[in-house]
Write a structure and sequence with these properties.
Serine Threonine Protein Phosphatase 5, Tetratricopeptide repeat; signal; 592 residues; Tetratricopeptide repeat protein; elongated; mainly alpha
Length: 592
């Protein structure tokens, strides 16, 4: 028999597997779009790989045009049988002219993409409606879920198959495939505490033997510690590179008594492990650190768990747990010790920026980070972080409050224009009158800092009068900074009267106003009066009550100024010169 003829017969034998198979009665509604038999498609021992591949490729090259599609399909199956997804996909993408149904093509493409490591694309191909109940598609979708850390998804697919159908269809696949799927499913049962999935896997073990570690996990989930220990007896020999680490990890989980150094033991095991197992052990170390009251160690272990987990739902859940740990570090609760210095906290956030941005609690993390930057004396950086937080969609319910904080931070950072923008946003969105009032005053401060004193004073004039004292304090501050001496003197004097009334306990008198201390305010009132250009007798009269409020050091100076202004001291005399010098000194002390 010629080689081409032999190859043609071989291809025909492969095609004999293409017909539909009856649904397994153990899997309700199950149908097989395509009877996949990777063991059969391999065609024997690995030693026959190259002769068989050569024969199939030769048959494809020498085939008549009408036979080319079938021979190319035989190559697709051959490569799938040996886990060569990229090669299988290459042939499949150029395969035309066969009786292969679209759903069958999609199933082959999904399997090939899984073998090529293209999990997302594989799931897309395997999730078409026509493959919803296909046993093989369910198997591949379950494996995709395992690789993505979608533990619930893996459990759903396997539960839909049932133990008998699962064991039966696994028999058509290489052992490596079955072991990866079953080990991943057992991990899914462990991490989700899914006793139903564990029982399904236990029943599957009667049809298709489970790997030892998978058996141990299943037994642990259902509470059969004796069976778990028995399964672990020879696990190190039977498993792959993770075998020893996984067996040791499960033995550690079987220890009922408290164990000192458990966290250190978990760290050592995690460093010896790979992939999902490493992520699982790091997550266990993080949980142990939380129980130990070690928030920094918990975050570091949780961050490592997230870094080593495969992309997918599990990794996202681990990231959320790490973000919660970071939140405890940045925003300790009442009575909690501050676990980190500001510089260490800032370094931690900067090293995990992507974690912060993707966290469900990113708003709180950004607020905590802004507070850290403020404590480090970096108000401009704090302002930028707060502004970023205020722009988040989830910040809308508290947007005005955040905008107000951003405005304060921007003003502290020396950016009055940006502070004005955020103050306006805070005022527009604020509901309680107190919040609108605070935003208006902050906007006025920003206008003053930008050199727009008249606009600032006008803005205060339009503010709600609910808190007269704070209005006066801001008005006095703005007028002083803008050298509007008459305004500054009037506001400072009125505020001093308010404070005196408050101290005297008068009804309706203002309380804390946020302005400078009374001595500083009295000095400023005196200087502003002198610089205001008012008549000397008016200035002297208004200076009269200030010495008592200015304090022991500045009171006599203000008295002397009043004396000169009223003509009680001889102009040009030594006393007059001393008074003028004292006035200059008072001015320099009163300026911020």
């Amino acid at each position: 028999m010629t080689a081409p003829r032999a190859a043609a017969l071989l291809a025909a034998a492969f095609l004999a597997c293409a017909g539909p198979a009856r649904a397994d009665s153990a899997s309700a509604g199950a149908t097989d779009i395509l009877a996949m038999d990777l063991k059969g498609w391999a065609g024997g021992a690995d030693a026959a790989y190259w002769p068989r591949r050569h024969a199939l490729e030769t048959a494809l090259l020498e085939a008549p045009e009408e036979e080319t599609p079938d021979r190319r399909l035989a190559l697709v199956r051959f490569h799938l049988a040996y886990g060569e997804g990229a090669e299988a996909l290459g042939h499949l993408e150029t395969l035309t002219g066969t009786a292969l149904q679209p759903a069958a093509r999609s199933l082959l493409a999904g399997a090939a993409r899984m073998q090529a490591g293209q999990v997302t694309e594989a799931l897309r191909a395997l999730s078409i409606p026509a493959l919803a109940h296909d046993r093989h598609a369910r198997l591949w979708r379950a494996l995709a879920a395992v690789r993505r850390g979608d533990w619930q998804g893996a459990g759903r697919e396997l539960a839909a198959l049932g133990p008998k159908a699962l064991g039966g269809v696994l028999a058509l696949y290489p052992e490596a495939f079955a072991e990866e799927l079953l080990a991943g499913a057992a991990r899914a049962a462990t991490l989700t505490a899914d006793a139903a999935l564990a029982r399904l896997l236990g029943e599957t073990g009667r049809v298709y033997p489970l790997p030892p570690v998978a058996s141990a996990r299943v037994a642990l989930v259902v509470g059969d510690t004796g069976a778990a220990r028995q399964a672990l007896a020879g696990a190190e020999v039977a498993e792959g590179p993770n075998g020893a680490a996984e067996a040791a990890y499960l033995r550690l989980a079987l220890r009922d008594a408290p164990m000192s150094g458990r966290r250190a033991a978990l760290h050592g095991l995690a460093r010896d492990a790979e992939g999902s197992l490493a992520a699982e052990i790091w997550a266990a170390a993080a949980e142990q650190a939380r129980r130990d009251g070690a928030p920094l160690a918990a975050f570091e272990a949780a961050a490592r768990a997230r870094a080593t987990a495969p992309p997918g739902p599990w990794r996202q859940a681990l990231a959320h747990a790490a973000a919660d740990d970071l939140g405890h570090l940045l925003l300790p609760g009442p009575g909690d010790a501050v676990p980190l210095s500001p510089i260490a906290a800032a370094e931690l956030v900067l090293a995990h920026r992507d974690l912060v941005e993707g966290a469900p609690n990113r708003l709180g993390l950004l607020e905590g980070f802004a507070g850290t930057l403020s404590r480090l004396g970096l108000p401009d950086a704090a302002a930028r972080v707060l502004m970023r937080a205020a722009d988040l969609p989830e910040a809308r319910p508290q947007g005005p409050c955040l905008a107000l904080r951003a405005a304060r931070a921007a003003l502290a950072a020396g950016d009055p224009e940006r502070a004005l923008t955020w103050a306006a946003r805070a005022e527009a969105g604020a509901h309680p009158q107190e919040d609108r009032h605070a935003a208006r005053l902050l906007g006025a401060r920003a206008l003053a800092a930008a050199g727009r004193t008249d606009e600032a004073l006008a803005a205060i004039g339009e503010a709600d009068a609910g808190d007269v004292a704070s209005l006066l304090a801001v008005r006095a501050e703005i007028a002083w900074q803008g050298e509007a001496w008459g305004e500054a003197a009037d506001a400072a004097n009125t505020l001093l009267v308010q404070r005196a009334a408050y101290r005297a306990g008068e009804t309706g008198a203002a309380g804390q106003d946020g302005g400078p201390d009374t001595g500083t305010l009295a000095r400023r009132a005196a200087v502003a009066l002198i610089r205001s250009g008012a008549r000397a007798d008016v200035v002297a009269e208004r200076l009269a009550p200030l010495p008592a409020q200015a304090g022991a050091r500045d009171g006599p100076r203000i008295d002397a100024l009043a004396a000169v202004l009223l003509g009680n001291a001889e102009p040009g005399s030594a006393q007059d010169i001393r008074v003028l010098r004292a006035a200059l000194e008072t001015l320099s002390q009163a300026r911020p």
